[in-house]
Amino acid sequence: MLKGENKLLAREFSYYPEETIEVKKKHRKKPVRKKKNNNSILKLFALTIPFVLLGISLLILSRYANITSIRQELTKLEREKVELEKIKMNLIADLEGIKSSAKIEEDAITKLGMTYPTEDQIVYITVNHNTIEDEEKITLGGRLSKILSFVSNLF
């Protein structure tokens, strides 16, 4: 056991600190540069994003307002179209009534006091229908002049 005790005793413990003289060197501390570029870019980016989003949302809102106004105008024009079609159909019906022969005859008798003609008021005219004979009398010169006049009328 002595051997193990010697080992323990052989170690000296120093309970008192040794005096050491430290020479403090004056070091100039370099100023710590803050990364202003990165921070300023981040701040600029953080401020820009909301403004860009606001601009986009205002643009979308204005487009929706424009679409709504165009839809209102379209609805108004469609109502006008329906009204004009009704007016057109009424006018067509009135025109058909005015153009009918029975309506014209009735108005002539009642409003104008007209009557059908009597036998002594009718005058007959005779018309000669010899068109085939007239075509045979046309000469070759007459036919050529008709062709030339037709061609000249084209220009």
Termini separation comes to: 146 Å
In DSSP terms, counting alpha (H) and pi (I) runs of 4 or more, how many helices? 5
Summarize the main sheet: none
Total beta-strand segments: 0
Q: What kind of oligomer do you see?
A: single chain
Which stretches of 5+ consecutive residues score pLDDT under 50? Answer: none
Descriptive account of the structure:
With 155 residues, the protein is mainly α. 68% of the residues lie in helices and 0% in strands. It has five helices and no strands. The chain has helices at 2-10, 36-99, 101-110, 131-137, 140-154. The chain starts with a helix and ends with a helix. The relative contact order is 0.02. The model has no long low-confidence stretch (mean pLDDT 79).
Task: Describe what is shown at a glance.
This protein has 155 residues and is an all-alpha fold.
Keywords:
155 residues, mainly alpha, elongated
Q: What's the topology here?
A:
Elements: H1 2-10, H2 36-99, H3 101-110, H4 131-137, H5 140-154
